[in-house]
Amino acid sequence: MMLPPGTPDLDVLDLLVSVAELGSLGAAARRHGITQPAASMRISALERRMRVKLLDRGPTGSELTDAGRAVVEHARPVLAAVRDLVDDIDRLRAAQATRLRIAASKTIADHRIPHWLAALRTDHPEVIVALDVENSTQVAALVRDGAADVGFVEGPHPPTGLGSRVLGSDELVVVVARDHPWARRKTPVTLAELAHTALLWREPGSGTRDTVWDLLSSEGAPAGPAAELGSAAAIVAAARTGMAPAVLSRLIAAPDLATGALVEVSSTDATRLTRKFRAIWRRSSPPTGPAELLVERAARLEEARR
Predict the structure, then answer these.
(1) CA 240 – CA 264 distance, rounded (Å)
(2) Which of 80, 117, 285, 305 places its Cα 20 to 30 Å from the Cα of 62?
(3) Beta bridge partners of 64
(4) Which PROSITE patterns does the entry mention (predicted)?
(5) CATH of domain 10-95
């Protein structure tokens, strides 16, 4: 069924209703973000289209005619129905939107995920992403439980029972406060020295902790920690005080190394002080659709960094 000739536009009906609600054409124009002359022209065009006078214009302002008030009463339920229609369409669109649930360790979430998501969004702006940030063990648990479609972790080994792909690597550095004795040493620190030194450690489950522990264990059981802290930021703050050395991602240590708040201590095994960034997923459901695209974008960007 086609609309009858003379059917008014919804925008101008909405403007007319605003005149009735606010009591003046000028106030209605301001509500709609247009000038009063433009509002007057639109109402005049509506009057010509409907062939009925809607406003009495006078030196002191404009007032709705009886016909104008009648049109407003008819317009209100029409406009309400249109708003309901638009809301329903928005809900339908949201329900059909492609959603991607990801989980990532904090270092990756802070220093890699924004770039990976930007690359994904360039080609697929319709994808809605939800991100959980946890340590690597917790990320693996979210993936196993199906709470995340794909996860991103760092560490020496892939999590047990999950599929994985190495995306790139991350350099680790030994850092101390500028007044720590190691800040003035002339010889590189060895893995054996690190293993027998009380260090600042991340909490169990951290990918950084697992990597460093795995590496130092090759020199014997690592010494007890100077402290176990639940975030890289806390370790940086503790290292600045001179409490103990720490082994951190260069990504995290870089700002303090640049200002001199922390000093990098060279290592005889610098090439071994690395950890891998991995994408992980349930083996029964490898990444497809947006998840697969994100992994591919991440791998491509990490390859470009090498």
Answers:
(1) 12
(2) 80
(3) 55
(4) HTH_LYSR
(5) 1.10.10.10
CB 172 within 8 A of CB 247: yes
Give the start-to-end residue ranges of the domains of the chain.
Answer: 10-95, 100-297
Residue with tokens 């040493």: 185
Residue type, 138: Q
Q: Which one is the CATH code of 100-297: 3.40.50.2300, 3.40.190.290, 3.10.450.710, 3.40.630.30?
A: 3.40.190.290
Both tokens assigned to 194 = 């690190």
Length of the chain: 306
pLDDT tens digits, one per residue of 7-54: 888 999 999 999 999 988 989 999 999 999 999 999 999 999 989 999
Distance CA 131, CA 55 (A): 54
Distance CA 44, CA 47 (A): 5
Identity at 89, one-letter amino acid code: I
